[in-house]
Each structure stands twice: as structure tokens, then as C-alpha cells.
Amino acid sequence: MDSAPPPPSKNLLRFHRRRKLRLNETQIPVLTEESKRCLRNLSSYRAPKPRLQFPRSRMAAVLVALFVGRKGDLYVLLSRRSASLRTYAGDTSLPGGKVDPGDVSLEDTARREAFEEIGLPRDRKKVPLLCVLEPFLAAELIVTPVVVLILDNTLEPILNTAEVASLFSHPLASFLSTTPPFPSEPESEEVPYHRSFDVEATGPFSSKQMFRVHEFLTGREAGGIKPVFGLTAAMLIRVATIGYGREPDFEVHPPGAPTMDERIAWALVHRKVFKDACEKEGIDLGLARRIAGVDKDGRPVKTARNLKAGEGKGRRKREYKL
């Protein structure tokens, strides 16, 4: 007999009520004015309500755990994935993973995974929630960043060595900069702190489009730590942009890049792993098809917007921001 279907995906979009962050009453060290503004901006951020329904079996969350350094600046915890993992072995990442049947929110997912991977307590007084961001598209998952603040800097990590090889930190503000926050290593002087790569692929509106991938050095490459790359970099750029209230020193997206909503809609309609999950969970893809600009058979719909998307060698002419 088949097991009961999972709870509706919309339940995961709920998160625990946030306690008002009173910076003068916390246990954290003295904050810089920039750090205070960043925390206030993050704690007041509300992500737009998702237009699409996502299959629960393809949802995941990561924990963006911030803490205050000795000089009052904000840092984010990053981990080096174990070399024995089947996927992304040795990569620099944020703690996180897929939604479990018992998770009632994406915050629950992110906190549970962080506890399992690095031993970060799920105590919401010591590690209060700042905000939950809009979802990001990975190869086979829809990933939501959950941002928290570690108030107790005496907490000791307990690494699950089957998943995490090591833990380190990086200044959050440096994800808006092209200047490294550390002295350059002699062997890496020729490699810039920040680089980006444009990749062409078929995307929304059935046209060839450019997608930009970012990379940041960690300053620990000589010790085997890989740069912050791809999805992890994109999420941290977004967190830093919201927190510090300014755009990065570089262009995040190429001209004409689709929005994340459009990319996710395209994936739901065209990628088998998402299509199968939507069918199994009874999710109607009508809205996703409209956003992606295709009909029920996945063929491009001839609308003014689609025709515009096909101009200029398949690239859309207006610029989007996440």
C-alpha cells in the first residue's frame, strides 16, 4: 500500500515568528555601524510571496549563519564538504539539504541540517532567525536560504566528518567586493579574488540565454579549500546586497538574463526530475508554463514577450535583477 502523500508544499513557506532583534541587549561584541545596518536590513526583509507551487520532494534549504567578529564585522560560516561524498565532494558550501517528512518549515530544514552537519544548536534564542530569502534554482532542487545570527560566540562546532571536512568563515561584505579581505598568497597572485563566467544555455522562452556564475577566493586555497562558487556564491551575494543595502562592485547578471522565477518555471516544465515530482504531487504547471512562455506541450507560445525574447541572437534585451 502506498504511503500517504507529503503535506502540501505551501506549509514549508511558513517560518517561526521572529523575535525583535535588540542589538543593545544581545551577548554579541561591539558592532560597527555598518554591521548594525546590515542586521536591521536583514531582520526587516520579507521575501516576495512565491508565485509558483514547488514539489516538496525537490525542495531544500541552507543555513546562512552569521556571527560578529572581534572588530564588529559580520562573518558567515562556510564548510568544506567531505571528500567521500558522492556529489560536490570537497566543495565550499553552506550547511543544508533536502526537506525531510518531519520538517514543517524551510527554517526547520535549514536548522536541522546545520545541527546534523556542524552541531549548530537549534536554540532560537542563541541563534535567532533574521530572514528567509526567495528560492534559488539548483540542478535538481529548489533551494531557499535561511539567514540566522549566532549570538553566542562560545559555541563549539561538532563536525559530522562523513559530510563536513572542515569549517571556516568569510566576511559577508566581501561578497560585494572585487578586493580580497586577506593578503594574497604568492601562488595565487595571478588569480583575482572575484571572477565570473557567462554560460549559454536554453532557458525561458525557448531561447539561448546567458547565465552568470560567480567565484570568490577564500584565501585558504593553499590548504585545499576551494573558492566559493556557483549557487553558494549567488546566495551570499544576495544576502550581502540586502544586508548592506548596496549593489556589488560587479554586475551580478548579464544583460537580458531571465529572472529566478522564470528560471524555476522553466525547470518545472522541462527538467524531468521536477516534472515527475510535480506530477506525483499533483501540482498544476499551468502558471509555470505561462511564466516560462510555453504551451502544455512545452512549445514556445507566440506572444509579444516571446518574440522580444528571440531578438538579438536569442537574448532578451531588458535586464533583470534577482
TrEMBL record:
One GO MF term, please? Answer: metal ion binding
What does the UniProt keyword field contain? Answer: Hydrolase, Magnesium, Manganese, Metal-binding
- The UniProt annotation puts the region (Disordered) at 299-322
- Locate the Nudix hydrolase domain: which residues? 57-193
GO CC terms of this entry: cytoplasm
Q: Does the keyword Heme apply?
A: no
Task: Name the cofactor(s).
Answer: Mg(2+); Mn(2+)
Which domain of life does the protein's organism represent? Eukaryota
Q: What's a BP term from Gene Ontology annotated to this protein?
A: organophosphate biosynthetic process
Record-linked SUPFAM superfamilies: Nudix (SSF55811)
* PROSITE patterns documented for this protein: NUDIX
Gene3D superfamilies linked to this entry: Nucleoside Triphosphate Pyrophosphohydrolase
Q: Does the keyword Protein transport apply?
A: no
One family from Pfam that matches here is NUDIX
Cross-referenced PANTHER family: NUDIX HYDROLASE, NUDIX HYDROLASE DOMAIN-CONTAINING PROTEIN
| Protein name, UniProt field | Nudix hydrolase domain-containing protein
Name the lineage.
Eukaryota, Fungi, Dikarya, Basidiomycota, Agaricomycotina
